[in-house]
């Protein structure tokens, strides 16, 4: 009978105070009965055995009795929540602190004391508060830093090394202090040893060290943005990424390295889960590609796959570099494969999370491309319309000037020799030639220069002509029109041409700087000046008469944007202005083709 045995064992403890070995045996029997037996632990509490063992641990002069009593208390507390609440007092924590700070306390006694602290704070918010208020957590952090020496560590037989066992117990207790339930105050305190933990990871990648530290780091940073940012600020993410790289290089040779890489992956995920923007730190180490390699391992369990996929999801949530790396390493087909082949609901959710990130990235990229195409279309239409408007305006002004010139010549001819029919006819013929010469400026034909010598059958009053030319040349500057005709003196014509030239240069300069950014303002303006000079030289010569740009001579034709573009494509001698327009049109069509290709790929 269990109750009878516990009564007898309690009596033995009370009456064997001078025999530590008998007390130790009785304590071992008690914890074997109470282990994982909540009813037995509760009965021992009711008969006063729990408090008696607690007093025995504090008062006994024998170290073996203290150790056995503390271990038995831990077993009873772990198996029964009422016993945990009964012993969760500041007094007990203070007694345990004394065991830890006494110089004559052995490593095993400290280890048993840490074990009691562990079971007191596990799943117990009051215990987490007590461990902080009594300063016990600060003592545990000190043990974390000092128990195991980096220079003298010997992990060849960790199961028999008491210092290593104590250090592992401290790590487990610190994990319980910050987690389940999450305790942000304790998390903020525990982050003070992050630099020491980072140093450990930098100097040692043995599983015996990496596993406890990763467990402690993962639970300390969990759901705590402040602690996550602090860990990243001291280079903790960089260190974890380097450890993962090293383990992945060994994973092809060692199964244990692969399993340890999963542990490091879980820690990385905890460090960026609430601050996905910090995932950019991992991009320079190509962490996403390493995680994809790890995910392709066939020996992984479902839980391990979930952890890896969630880490990939948090890495790619807001970081474009990690998103591109995911796509470049065939991560998208792998996620789709997981989604279609798996039956586990949590695994499907994790894969869907990653695919959602890819979808969002594709949507943003498509939106940006679409905006560029829309801007290109708008600019192309504006420039094309502006071009035709300028052409029509210039053509209209030329026709007005032609009429003025014809009327002026006719009047002057009548005034000079009204009684000479022959000279009157010749003068009229000369005036009629002027509109033909000027109008053919837009039809790719140049008439013979009027500055050349007159024909034999012509008779001209040279004095009046010279006087007329001198008067006209005072009012207009040297230009292309001056080389074509010497009979256009009106200031209205000059001002109109200047306005049209300014509008044309403004529109074309905007076109060139938008679609051809490699052409600067200086080069564009210089090209326009050189173009005017070359046009003047061409119009004064008959050799280049058939090498004009079709776009410059199409003002009288009925054209739209489609036929105008085809005409420019057929032209072998395009001017700089129309070449810029054609390049803009080709660039716009190329953008449309790329968008259409992207849409067809996504639909496929």
UniProtKB/TrEMBL annotation:
Spans through the membrane: none
Task: Tell me which Gene3D superfamilies the record gives.
Answer: Leucine-rich Repeat Variant (1.25.10.10)
Q: Which domain of life is it from?
A: Eukaryota
Record GO biological process: homologous chromosome pairing at meiosis; meiotic attachment of telomere to nuclear envelope
> Which residues lie within the region annotated Disordered?
450-475
Designated name of the protein: TERB1 protein
The taxonomic lineage of its organism, from the top, reads: Eukaryota, Metazoa, Chordata, Craniata, Vertebrata
């Amino acid at each position: 009978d269990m109750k009878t045995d516990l009564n007898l064992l309690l009596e033995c403890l009370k009456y064997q105070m001078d025999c530590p070995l008998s007390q130790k045996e009785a304590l071992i029997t008690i914890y074997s009965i109470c282990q994982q037996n909540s009813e037995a632990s509760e009965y021992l509490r009711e008969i006063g055995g729990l408090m008696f063992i607690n007093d025995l641990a504090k008062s006994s002069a024998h170290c073996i009795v203290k150790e056995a009593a503390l271990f038995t208390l831990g077993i009873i507390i772990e198996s029964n929540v009422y016993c945990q609440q009964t012993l969760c007092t500041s007094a007990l924590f203070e007694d345990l602190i004394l065991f830890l700070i006494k110089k004559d306390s052995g490593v095993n006694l400290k280890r048993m004391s840490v074990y009691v602290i562990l079971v007191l704070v596990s799943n117990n918010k009051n215990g987490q508060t007590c461990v902080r208020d009594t300063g016990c957590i600060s003592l545990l952090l000190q043990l974390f830093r000092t128990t195991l020496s980096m220079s003298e560590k010997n992990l060849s037989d960790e199961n028999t090394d008491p210092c290593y066992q104590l250090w592992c117990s401290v790590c487990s207790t610190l994990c319980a202090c910050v987690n389940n339930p999450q305790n942000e105050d304790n998390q903020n305190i525990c982050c003070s040893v992050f630099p020491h933990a980072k140093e450990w990871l930098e100097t040692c990648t043995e599983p015996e060290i990496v596993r406890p530290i990763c467990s402690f780091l993962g639970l300390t940073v969990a759901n705590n943005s402040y602690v996550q940012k602090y860990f990243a600020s001291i280079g903790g993410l960089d260190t974890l990424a380097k450890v993962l790289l090293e383990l992945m290089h060994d994973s092809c040779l060692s199964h244990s390295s692969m399993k340890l890489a999963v542990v490091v992956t879980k820690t990385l995920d905890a460090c960026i889960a609430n601050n996905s923007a910090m995932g950019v730190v991992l991009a320079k180490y190509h962490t996403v590609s390493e995680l994809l390699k790890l995910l392709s391992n066939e020996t992984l369990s479902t839980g391990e796959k979930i952890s890896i996929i969630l880490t990939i999801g948090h890495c790619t949530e807001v970081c474009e570099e990690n998103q591109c790396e995911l796509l470049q390493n065939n991560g998208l087909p792998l996620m789709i494969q997981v989604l279609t082949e798996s039956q586990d609901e949590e695994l499907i959710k994790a894969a869907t999370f990653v695919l959602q990130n890819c979808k969002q990235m594709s949507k943003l990229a498509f939106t940006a491309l679409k905006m560029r195409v829309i801007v290109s279309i708008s600019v192309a239409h504006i420039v094309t319309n502006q071009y035709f408007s300028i052409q029509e305006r210039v053509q209209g002004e030329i026709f007005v000037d032609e009429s003025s010139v014809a009327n002026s010549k006719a009047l002057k001819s009548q005034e000079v020799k009204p009684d000479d029919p022959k000279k009157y006819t010749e003068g009229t013929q000369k005036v009629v030639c002027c509109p033909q010469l000027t109008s053919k400026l837009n039809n790719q034909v140049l008439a013979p220069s009027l500055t050349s010598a007159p024909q034999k059958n012509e008779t001209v009053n040279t004095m009046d002509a010279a006087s007329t030319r001198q008067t006209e040349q005072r009012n207009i500057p040297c230009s292309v029109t001056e080389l074509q005709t010497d009979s256009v003196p009106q200031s209205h014509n000059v001002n109109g041409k200047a306005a049209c030239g300014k509008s044309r240069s403004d529109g074309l300069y905007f076109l060139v700087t938008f679609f051809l950014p490699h052409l600067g303002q200086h080069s564009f303006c210089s090209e326009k000046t050189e173009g005017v000079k070359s046009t003047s030289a061409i119009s004064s010569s008959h050799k280049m008469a058939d090498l004009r740009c079709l776009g410059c001579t199409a003002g009288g034709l009925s054209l739209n944007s489609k036929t105008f573009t085809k005409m420019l494509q057929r032209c072998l001698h395009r001017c700089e202005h129309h070449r810029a327009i054609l390049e803009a049109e080709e660039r716009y069509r190329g953008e449309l083709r790329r968008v259409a290709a992207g849409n067809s790929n996504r639909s496929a």
